[in-house]
Amino acid sequence: MEKKIAQISDIHFGEKTFSHELKNNLMAQLEEENPDLIIVAGDLTTEGYLHEYEDAAEFVEQLRTITNTYTIPGNHDARNVGLIHFENLIGHRKFVHLDKAGGFAVLGLDSAEPDINDGQIGMDQLDWLRTELEKIPNDVCKIVTFHHHLLPIPQTGRERNILLDSGDLMRTFVECGVDFVLNGHKHVPNAWMIEKMVTLNSGTATTRKLRGNTFSSHNEIIIRDDDIQVNLINTLTGDNRPMAHYSVKLEEEEYIICSYKHMVP
Ligand SMILES: [Fe+2]
Ligand SMILES: [Fe+2]
After folding, report:
1. How far is residue 41's CA from residue 35's CA, in Å, rounded to a whole number?
2. What spacing in Å lies between the alpha carbon of 67 and ligand 2's midpoint?
């Protein structure tokens, strides 16, 4: 069986470098990929304003015509009391998606704090996450997503905005057998593996708010029985190149990643 997740983030309606051309390209690319699930890992807007959310809601509706789509807020979405609009126009700020037949589960969390760029998950959400993870069978791939980056990302300048409780999160994720963490925020795609857990960051899909030689992009995650392939898709050119590959297996009924290769540009 093969299942596909599109990981996109940092859409930023209202941002001066937002590009309608890139947005249209992204839609066409997603239609061609035909994923089973789309995850929008935060920063739909720029200032959290209502008019930005109205554009974002239309965008999310379009995504939902392609396939099942989940969104979580980013730091920009929480500006100016924007989370009210998020809940009214976009949906819940956390979610659980279990695809037993496809062999994976995705749990989404809200890492955004009102009007500051720093993020945290907090004890309440962590307790909720632990409870929800216990309900997920051990033999499926466990994926957790939130906006802020869990680990430092190279080529992003001075380090800032790592989650305030990242150490406790990492301990909990490892203890609970989380296999993949999907983050956005830095606009730079990246992959790290620590313990037996992978963190995958997506770039900005639709803006030119870019650092160094990076380009607008999203990640395509292909889940198969024995391996997981991650591809990086350039929104401007459509170029699709391998970014990471993992071999996976069941060890005593527990899903684990047993080897990895990272090809981050
Ligand atoms: Fe962003
Ligand atoms: Fe962000």
Report:
1. 16
2. 24
Ligand nearest to the CA of 79: 2
Q: Give exposure, 141-177, as e/b (b: 16+ Cβ within 10 Å).
A: bbbbbbbbbbeebeebeeeebbbbbbeebbebbeebb
Would you kindly state where each structural domain of the chain is located, as residue ranges? 3-262
Q: Ligand 2 center to residue 188 CA distance, Å?
A: 11
Residue among 189, 177, 179, 101 at smallest CA distance from 143: 179
**What DSSP character marks residue 212?**
T
Ligand 1 geometric centre to CA of 11 (Å): 7
CATH code of the domain occupying 3-262: 3.60.21.10
pLDDT tens, residue by residue, 150-203? 999 999 999 998 999 999 999 999 999 999 999 999 999 999 999 999 999 999
76 and 45 Cβ atoms separated by less than 8 Å: yes
Contact, 189 vs 243, CB < 8 A? yes
pLDDT for 67 equals: 98
Please tell me the distance between residue 248's alpha carbon and the centre of ligand 1 in angstroms: 31
Q: Which ligand is nearest to the CA of 202?
A: 1
Pair 53, 90: CB distance under 8 Å: yes
Q: Are 231 and 213 in contact (CB under 8 A)?
A: no
- In the block, residue with structure tokens 């906006």: 147
